[in-house]
Amino acid sequence: MEGERRPAPYEGLFADGHLILWTLCSVLLPVFITFWCSLQRSRRQLHRRDIFRKSKHGWRDTDLFSQPTYCCVCTQHILLGAFCDCCGLRVDEGCLKKADKRFPCKEIMLKSDGRALDAMPHHWIRGNVPLCSSCVVCRQQCGSQPKLCDYRCIWCQKTVHDECMKNSLKNEKCDFGEFRNLIIPPSYLTSINQMRKDKKTDYAVLASKLGRQWSPLIILANSRSGTNMGEGLLGEFRILLNPVQVFDVTKTPPVKALQLCTLLPCHSARVLVCGGDGTVGWVLDAVDEMKIKGQEKYIPQVAVLPLGTGNDLSNTLGWGAGYAGEIPVAQVLRNVMEADGIKLDRWKVQVTNKGYYNLRKPKEFTMNNYFSVGPDALMALNFHAHREKAPSLFSSRILNKAVYLFYGTKDCLVQECKDLNKKVELELDGERVELPSLEGIIVLNIGYWGGGCRLWEGMGDETYPLARHDDGLLEVVGVYGSFHCAQIQVKLANPFRIGQAHTVRLILKCSMMPMQVDGEPWAQGPCTVTITHKTHALMLYFSGEQTDDDMSSTSDQEDIKDTE
């Protein structure tokens, strides 16, 4: 044992040093590679954003195209890259600069005003045509080959095969296709610009060349509404229409966007609001401002594409309870063309606080849907408070309704709004109404309430005058609590119908109570609430989206007419 050689101390230290070195390399190398990749990705993003900012195209980047896609420059198959949401051009990231120089985007206005309104040629781009599109020459399917092939006009959306493309077709006049009556041609805006320089305002003469059916459409989309579909819809509408007609209301307020109506013939414009009931109210307030400015002859008719949570107004007007992309955008435009004009009552809600030394002006709201005090306002107030804290968590329509259900269940146990009849006095057209033991009072202007429930009709087993949104009357109902509200929504109970009136006055005598106007809630102390008629709004009603409730209400109305 004494003859065995012991290892020198420095050999052990050397081995430990190797182990430490390899351990550091194994830990630091992935960190370095990750940092280097992040740095390169950040540089590419900055470079790409710089190109996007300087480009005339409306570029947007994507990590994965939804269909087989080929670069319009290098013709190679690509999985990710950038696309223009105005003309539909799709390119690889490395070909962005070349695409900017080689391919022009949609022209909002023509550079020269010498071209006639009806003499605009097609604007063809090659490749990535829509699926199931057909050639205008041979009527066969386009885009079926696995390569960059065939052409599409970015204005009329017509497609044609490579071999069918002729010089005569390249120089052919573009008629703007199926949606010609909704599109504002670039040549029209150029002519308008020239007329304004000459101080002429007779736009009807100019519009007569576009036909009697020409009724241009303005898109006002809220990119933050509901399920955050607004941003994608903006791009789809820009492809089908003139990009100048499409606005994101979070960037361009409706007051500014609606000034485009003043460049169009009187009473010709239509507006499609893509958002919730709050966005619709915002747009209708902007329309009222046009009346104040003396622009009443330019006021448009308003249609709705529901992207919010409740969407009671859009449901009342036949546009459905919510849009989730189940029908293509082109069909939405067809529905707008088929819609009929109707009127919608708008009401002024004035809230005057009580107190001898109250020097504040009364608060004023404009009501399109309903006003309420009680459990449904309390649910809206709780939901609103939590959404303000974490708005990103409330982007799902289903999740939002689940949160409402949670607060409704909680109120069934707590009953924060009980004995409301002892705290308020209610007057309909100046006559005081005796109230039973209620927890909530709801004043309705439209047929739907609470995300799709026809509150005034209830179960439909009793004969009452139907609720209308254009008769100058308000329907006033009471509820006995959150559980009663839930029963009404599933048609297991009727509301307590208080009556109909032209003017409603509610006096809150004591304590704080939750109130809401069109889903905008607040906590209110002793006050007097007065609801009076304010004005009418011109809306578009689409009869093709009638629900079972709509059909039953229509049949009930016909039965009443027959008995009369």
Automatic annotation (TrEMBL):
Ranges annotated as spanning the membrane: 20-39
Specify the enzyme's EC class, one word: transferase
Alphabetical GO CC annotations of the entry are: cytoplasm; membrane
Q: Which Pfam families match?
A: C1_1, DAGK_acc, DAGK_cat
What is catalyzed by this enzyme? 1-octadecanoyl-2-(9Z,12Z)-octadecadienoyl-sn-glycerol + ATP = 1-octadecanoyl-2-(9Z,12Z-octadecadienoyl)-sn-glycero-3-phosphate + ADP + H(+); 1-eicosanoyl-2-(5Z,8Z,11Z,14Z)-eicosatetraenoyl-sn-glycerol + ATP = 1-eicosanoyl-2-(5Z,8Z,11Z,14Z)-eicosatetraenoyl-sn-glycero-3-phosphate + ADP + H(+); 1,2-di-(5Z,8Z,11Z,14Z)-eicosatetraenoyl-sn-glycerol + ATP = 1,2-di-(5Z,8Z,11Z,14Z)-eicosatetraenoyl-sn-glycero-3-phosphate + ADP + H(+); 1,2-di-(9Z-octadecenoyl)-sn-glycerol + ATP = 1,2-di-(9Z-octadecenoyl)-sn-glycero-3-phosphate + ADP + H(+)
Which residue range or ranges hold the Phorbol-ester/DAG-type domain?
A: 56-105, 121-174
The places in or outside the cell where this protein is found are: Cytoplasm; Membrane
> Which keywords does UniProt give here?
ATP-binding, Cytoplasm, Kinase, Lipid metabolism, Membrane, Metal-binding, Nucleotide-binding, Repeat, Transferase, Transmembrane, Transmembrane helix, Zinc, Zinc-finger
Q: Which residues form the DAGKc domain?
A: 212-353
InterPro entries referenced in this protein's UniProt entry, alphabetically? ATP-NAD_kinase_N, C1-like_sf, DGK, Diacylglycerol_kin_accessory, Diacylglycerol_kinase_cat_dom, NAD/diacylglycerol_kinase_sf, PKC_DAG/PE
Q: Which pathway does the database say it acts in?
A: Glycerolipid metabolism; Lipid metabolism; glycerolipid metabolism
This protein's membrane topology, according to the annotation, is: Single-pass membrane protein
Q: What is its EC number?
A: 2.7.1.107
Q: What does this protein do?
A: Membrane-bound diacylglycerol kinase that converts diacylglycerol/DAG into phosphatidic acid/phosphatidate/PA and regulates the respective levels of these two bioactive lipids. Thereby, acts as a central switch between the signaling pathways activated by these second messengers with different cellular targets and opposite effects in numerous biological processes. Also plays an important role in the biosynthesis of complex lipids.
Protein name per UniProt: Diacylglycerol kinase
What organism, scientifically named, is this protein from?
Suricata suricatta (Meerkat)
| Organism ancestry | Eukaryota, Metazoa, Chordata, Craniata, Vertebrata
